[in-house]
Each structure stands twice: as structure tokens, then as C-alpha cells.
């Protein structure tokens, strides 16, 4: 029988999943490379075989969440048609990305700007928020959404409702799935925002 040392079976993707779990549990600032190596069951040097360091793992993780969100804006239903319908599509898909990529979006929502990567992620989030706010503004201008609700407030409330999902949603648990949650968010938000026909 061979007594060769165990080979590192981690891939960049599996290592990233472990890192995201630990970052979400301990906070990014409270996580050391030692914590990551223990959680992964591999040596610190094995981690460095895959990445330059902890911040690279953070960047990969928040990039995954941001890429999912920005991809929504490129979808046909987000680019064509009346602004209110595009906004509803974006809202529905934001919930879909959040529920499908829950650990990654959770981490994105928890960055505080303490590192270059966190500052970059926060700037990208603001850019996404501005694009959604622009859809709100266009839908109000079209007369499809109420003009008496301030756009920034409506946008923040919508994001607040969606972002709060990370606090209670558990994939695979009993209860609503991502699609049902998206339906509920769209119904609740737009029933109060749409103008009367």
C-alpha cells in the first residue's frame, strides 16, 4: 500500500465555496488564512497554490455575485419593452440570483469598504443600484409608476426587501422556493407602486 501524502483535491471553485462560508461566519476581517486552511482541511501553502491570498478569494466571491446581478441587465427582458415591465423583470431576476447564489450575495451585502476589493465591490453595487433607479425613473415618466413616491426611497425600499431575504431564506428548506419568493416580492412591491389603470 502506498503511503504517499494526500494530494490537494481542492479546486479553485471548492476552495472558494469554503472561503465564502468562513467569511460569512466570521466576517472577512475576522478570517485569517489559518481559519481558511483549517476549514478546508488543507495547509496554508496549498491555499496559496490556488490564490495569492485572502483578498483574491474575496474578489472572486463578490465578483460571482456582481456578475450574476449585472448579467440581468443584459437580458432581453431587461433591455426591451416598457420600463415598468423591464423593472419587474429585473426585480424578479434579482431575487433569483440572490436565492441561487445565496452565500456569495450574502458576502457582497456584508462588505464594508475596508479593503480595495471591498471598495470596488461597493462601487459596483452602487452602479447596479443606479441602473435600477434609472428604470424606476423611466417607469414614472411613462406614467406606469406613481410619481408621488420619491424614486430613491422606492429603490431603497425595494432593495431592502430583496436584500433581507439573505437573513431568513434557506435553500432546500421547507417553505417557498426562489421563484415563489420572487413572485411575492414583485406582487408586494408593484401593487403599491403601479398607477391605477
UniProtKB/TrEMBL annotation:
Residues 32-51 bind DNA. The keyword Cell division does not apply. Gene3D superfamilies: Homeodomain-like, Tetracycline Repressor, domain 2. It comes from the Bacteria. SUPFAM superfamilies: Homeodomain-like, Tetracyclin repressor-like, C-terminal domain. Residues 9-69 form the HTH tetR-type domain. GO terms for molecular function: DNA-binding transcription factor activity; transcription cis-regulatory region binding. The keyword Protein biosynthesis does not apply. Keywords: DNA-binding, Transcription, Transcription regulation. InterPro entries: Homeodomain-like_sf, HTH-type_TetR-like_transc_reg, HTH_TetR, KstR2_TetR_C, Tet_transcr_reg_TetR-rel_C_sf. PANTHER family: HTH-TYPE TRANSCRIPTIONAL REGULATOR BETI (PTHR30055:SF234), HTH-TYPE TRANSCRIPTIONAL REGULATOR RUTR (PTHR30055). This is TetR family transcriptional regulator. The lineage of its organism: Bacteria, Bacillati, Actinomycetota, Actinomycetes, Kitasatosporales.
Amino acid at each position: 500500500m502506498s503511503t504517499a501524502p494526500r494530494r490537494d483535491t481542492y479546486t479553485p471553485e471548492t476552495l472558494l465555496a469554503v472561503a465564502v462560508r468562513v467569511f460569512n461566519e466570521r466576517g472577512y476581517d475576522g478570517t485569517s488564512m489559518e481559519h481558511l486552511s483549517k476549514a478546508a482541511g488543507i495547509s496554508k501553502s496549498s491555499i496559496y497554490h490556488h490564490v495569492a491570498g485572502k483578498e483574491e478569494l474575496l474578489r472572486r466571491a463578490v465578483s460571482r455575485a456582481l456578475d450574476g446581478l449585472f448579467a440581468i441587465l443584459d437580458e432581453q427582458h431587461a433591455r426591451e419593452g416598457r420600463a415598468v415591465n423591464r423593472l419587474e423583470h429585473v426585480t424578479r431576476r434579482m431575487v433569483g440570483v440572490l436565492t441561487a447564489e445565496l452565500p456569495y450575495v450574502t458576502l457582497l451585502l456584508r462588505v464594508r469598504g475596508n479593503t480595495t476589493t471591498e471598495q470596488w465591490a461597493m462601487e459596483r453595487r452602487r452602479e447596479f443600484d443606479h441602473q435600477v433607479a434609472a428604470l424606476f425613473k423611466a417607469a414614472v415618466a411613462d406614467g406606469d409608476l406613481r410619481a408621488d413616491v420619491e424614486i430613491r426611497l422606492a429603490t431603497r425600499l425595494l432593495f431592502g426587501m430583496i436584500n433581507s431575504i439573505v437573513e431568513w431564506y434557506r435553500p432546500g428548506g421547507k417553505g417557498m422556493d426562489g421563484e415563489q419568493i420572487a413572485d411575492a416580492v414583485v406582487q408586494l412591491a408593484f401593487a403599491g407602486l403601479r398607477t391605477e389603470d
